[in-house]
Every structure is written in structure tokens, then in C-alpha cells.
Specification:
- The chain is of the alpha/beta class.
- It has 9 helices and 5 strands; from the N terminus they run βαβααααββαααβα.
- It has a single domain (about 15-204), classed as Rossmann fold (3-Layer(aba) Sandwich).
- The longest helix is centred in the middle third of the chain and has 26 residues, at about 85-110.
Length: about 200
């Protein structure tokens, strides 16, 4: 389902978002196969937890036991921040500027590629929550039926789907605020076809 379209410079700078279990990572991989350059902010955050700047700030707030052996225990940290709104806000204020810096550096690098990618796509689950949507030429929300989302998230160990979802905008709100909406209830081939149509619109 295409909700709308805008014309943008090539390669367009696109944010990909959606709720847990909707299939953002699957969509990102499909966009890469279609010729886009892609990056996941989840992967960026994962790398940032290894940076001394972040590790030291996290241990200063939560104690050394949050980083046994000098490595931040992400599962333990997640339990702490989802249980505390002030802690979650503190972590977001620490990480989001660093993530933006990494994404900007990536964008500068891949914009120089020849031939240029069809698009530059950033997977960012908390796009609207971070107030980052104005940075992008277009936004794409991946949505799926609630039962499918729960099954997908549960299969990856995200048992606390409802708790985590409560900390985010609903997928309906994400869809309403996005340039395009892609329903991911079918096959990968169907998803890739819808995403290809979006790239075609943005390349016009």
C-alpha cells in the first residue's frame, strides 16, 4: 500500500521505521538488494556501546556491574531503562546525538559512491520519537498485523513486546506520519515489490 509520494533529489535520503516485529530489518535488506545504500541505527548503537565514551557514562550512572569485563550488557541495560522513564530519557539523550553523528558521516561517505546508490536508507525505529523526521527526504513505515508482529518479535526473544511498544508511538501513528506505508503481511517478494515501487516514485 503506497500512501503518497514526493519527488526528491537523487539519491534520496530515506528513513525506514516501524514497530517491533513489523519487519524493518527484512525491508532494509530488500532495499539493499534493490540498489540502496543502507544503515541500521540499531547496529550503530550496538557499536557505540563499545566506545569508552558511552561505556564510561553508562557505568557512571548504573554501576560497574552493568558492564562486566568492560562490555556493556545490553540486555541488563534494557531491563533497567524500560523500567525507568528518567533512565530511558537519559540514555536517549546520550545516544541520539552520537547516532546522528555516525549517520551523517556514513551519508557523506556513501554519497560519493560511483555509480550512486538508488537511495540512502537509514533504519531508525524511534524516528518520530527522536524528532528526526525532518532530516529526511521521505519516510517509510513498515506495518504488519498485530499477531504477526507478536510472533516475529517473540521468535527473536522479544517477549516484552507490549511493554516496549508502550514506550513508542503506535504503528498506526507511525504510519500516519510517514510519507509511505508498506504492509508486511505477505512474502518477502511482495515486500520487495512494494519497496521497489517506492524507489521508482522517488527517482522520478
Amino acid at each position: 500500500m503506497l500512501k503518497g509520494g514526493t519527488v526528491s533529489a537523487v539519491p534520496p535520503f530515506i528513513a525506514l521505521t516501524g514497530g517491533m516485529g513489523a519487519g524493518k530489518s527484512t525491508a532494509l535488506a530488500a532495499l539493499e538488494r534493490l540498489g540502496a545504500a543502507v544503515i541500521s541505527t540499531d547496529a550503530v548503537v550496538h557499536d557505540l556501546y563499545s566506545a569508552p565514551e558511552v561505556r564510561d557514562a553508562v557505568t557512571a550512572r548504573f554501576g560497574a556491574d552493568i558492564a562486566p569485563g568492560g562490555v556493556v550488557d545490553r540486555a541488563s541495560l534494557a531491563r533497567r531503562i524500560f523500567a525507568s522513564t528518567p533512565d530511558r530519557a537519559w540514555l536517549e539523550q546520550l545516544l541520539w546525538p552520537l547516532v546522528r553523528r555516525q549517520v551523517e558521516a556514513w551519508r557523506a561517505r556513501v554519497s560519493l559512491l560511483q555509480p550512486p546508490p538508488r537511495a540512502l536508507v537509514v533504519e531508525i525505529p524511534l524516528l518520530f520519537e527522536a524528532g528526526a523526521e525532518q532530516t529526511y527526504d521521505a519516510t517509510v513505515a513498515v506495518v504488519a498485523d498485530e499477531q504477526l508482529r507478536a510472533e516475529r518479535a517473540g521468535s527473536r526473544g522479544h517477549a516484552a513486546l507490549a511493554q516496549r511498544d508502550a514506550r513508542q508511538l503506535s504503528q498506526e501513528e507511525k504510519a500516519a506520519r510517514s510519507t509511505f506505508v508498506v504492509e508486511n503481511n505477505g512474502s518477502i517478494e511482495q515486500l520487495e515489490s512494494e519497496l521497489s515501487s517506492i524507489l521508482d516514485i522517488l527517482e522520478r
